Amino acid sequence: MSVLKAPVTPRDHILGPANAPVTIVEYGDYECPHCGAAHPIVKLVLEQFGKNIRFIFRHFPLSQVHPSAQAAAESAEFAGGRGRFWDMHDGIYENQDRLGLPLLFALASALELSEARLREALVNGEYAEKVRSDFLGGVRSGVNGTPSFFINGRRHDGSYAFGDLAGAVEANLRLKVSI
Amino acid sequence: MSQILTVGATAPEFVLRVTPDQNLSLSELKGRPVVLAFYPADWSPVCGDQLALYNEVLPEFRRHGAEMLGISVDGVWCHEAYAEARRLRFPLLADFHPKGAVARSYGAYREGEGVCDRALFVVDGSGVIVWSYLSPIAVNPGADGILEALENISNKEGSHVSAQSAGHAA
Fold it and tell me: What are the pLDDT digits (tens) for B73-123?
């Protein structure tokens, strides 16, 4: 079974309390249709488990097949540098059917972030290293496609259907309580 | 499932079509590590993900001086169309005629279906297999095992390799 080799650090984007008994790390690609389909399901799972769950999203763009994935990931990081990572993250997935530079700039404007600064950050690749570092951590952890989930450090080999994901979280919660 | 060649075996030599008018042989690549990825077919979904992943990890493979080669029984024209559509940046070799002969020599041929198994080999600069892995046919094996094998080669040859690359840089 594949194990998460890249531990959660302050560089990560984290939702939920640090002491939550269950941590989910997702490796995702903003242009991947499966990740788009998983997005609302993940939100439901987070809602369902409330304070018992901590969620981390890391980038795993396959940019040769998904030409907008890298720019989208860098845009989310740009927003993250300004405290708006999750707003950008949600915005991209919720409008995935029209992903492209115009959407990324429009989202930045809607979040009152400077479109010009975003453009500059993308041109200069200011966040490329962060995205690549997420990607390589995923590769080392055996991520072979997206979305990939690690639940308390172990790869979730089930599907991203609500029942599968919630069931795996539930199993980890019980595990923690019984120790 | 096949019995693939394991660590310590000499990687069997091959000469395969890499473009409609060019061949590539394993011995041409002697002196640097080679990653051989046998896979069942162009265009099938899992293969696509697997090769797309290697495409993205390629700079890391190259950092270890390694060449990445994909091998299936598809013909050169099929490979060409596939590589273009998926923007693959490494060669695909056609184990097309006699069909599957190279895969067979690595123990990575599925007689029943007439396709290559999903098997990975890392060959060092002297032509010896230092890592091999047979994945269940429907599972994308990822790239972590390949990277680890390449790192081990680099660590073993550490001083030698850095001396060489310094030479190249000069």
Answer: 999 999 999 999 999 999 999 999 999 999 999 999 999 999 999 999 999
| pLDDT tens-digit map of A70-126 | 999 999 999 999 999 999 999 999 999 999 999 999 999 999 999 999 999 999 999
Whether residue B60 has pLDDT greater than 90: yes
Q: Which of A132, A140, A144 to mutate to probe the B interface, most B CBs <10 Å? A: A144
| Domains in chain B with CATH codes | 15-169 (3.40.30.10)
User: Which 3 state secondary structure label does DSSP give A72?
Assistant: helix
For domain A13-178, give its CATH number from 3.40.50.1000, 3.40.30.10, 1.10.10.10, 3.40.50.300.
3.40.30.10
Once rounded to an integer, what is the mean pLDDT over residues A33-38? 96
Tell me whether B149 touches chain A (CB under 8 Å): no
Question: Which ipTM value was assigned to this complex?
Answer: 0.84
Examine the residue annotation and report whether B47 is marked as an active-site residue of this protein: yes
- Please tell me which of the candidates A61, A64, A142 has its beta carbon nearest to residue B144: A142
Contact: B143, A139; criterion CB under 8 Å: yes
Answer whether A64 touches B (CB < 8 Å).
Answer: yes
Show the tokens assigned to A14: 């984290």
Put simply, the answer to whether B89 touches A141 (Cβ < 8 Å) is no
Q: Which of B48, B49, B60 sits opposite A136 (nearest CB)?
A: B60
Catalytic residue among B26, B47, B76, B130: B47
CA distances for B102 relative to B17, B23, B88, angstroms:
12, 14, 22
pTM of the predicted protein model: 0.89
Are the CB atoms for B80 and B86 separated by under 8 Å? no
**In chain A, domain spans:** 13-178
Task: Inspect the interface and report whether the beta carbons of B53 and A141 lie closer than 8 Å.
Answer: no
Alpha helices in A21-161, H assignment, sequence order: 33-49, 69-80, 85-94, 101-110, 115-124, 128-140
